[in-house]
């Protein structure tokens, strides 16, 4: 099946980012993998009055299928409206590997896509990004690209070392590609195992400031921005899980970026940890429970509660739009 995203009630990110940059907050981009996570995300954002980008990796898309994923996004819009909220909802492809993958998602009803050419040379990255932008414009779909490389693992995206974004390249890249937003590398990292305990993760805010000076008002994106909340790490371990000790990006670091020129912050790992902690808690405390609604429902509410806190403490996007009932 093919859909136009507007027929699903979805929005692209253009107006979202313009409003965010003007009012100095960041739009939450939360990854989802199933219905419960989708509901946790959209209900949290509707209740907080925050815009939201429902973010889907290629792995998540394969799991949910491209036939089901856009309909879950439509259901998210319908759920927000039923709650009395008019928040805009985007469906975004995270780390699209090539033009064919992007085309498939646009045809399926995605309103926003990312083309990740960060592992190519600068010139090749410009070429593939420009090709995607030219195709996406035919459908009024917004495009995100990436300069620099984040270390860590996220689905099929793997890199051992970070390469910070070079501010000297951003003007040329944005100008030649026509891209709508730009993901940069300034110290964040993909996955749950970002930094070892005892370290002091810091964002390179001087690089961010220089990039903002070079492309003022242009929407900047931060990937790999989970905090890896220790309360969930410890709870998962308490109930039989095995996780390597790690810490994430402190909320205080992200707050500064959100109030600056960063219009979109990606979070995936935090939601997975909250969700998993909820499931494990039910299984540990109620070992006879086998009704999926009982343990998935708890997991959904845990994830929702955490994201409501995150919206207020990090993104600053609460009450940007009409809040739900």
Automatic annotation (TrEMBL):
Pfam families: F_bP_aldolase (PF01116)
PROSITE patterns given in the database record: ALDOLASE_CLASS_II_1
UniProt keyword list: Lyase, Metal-binding, Zinc
Cofactor: Zn(2+)
One Gene Ontology MF term: fructose-bisphosphate aldolase activity
Keyword Lyase included in the entry's annotation: yes
Name this polypeptide is given: Class II fructose-1,6-bisphosphate aldolase
Gene: fba
Assigned EC number: 4.1.2.13
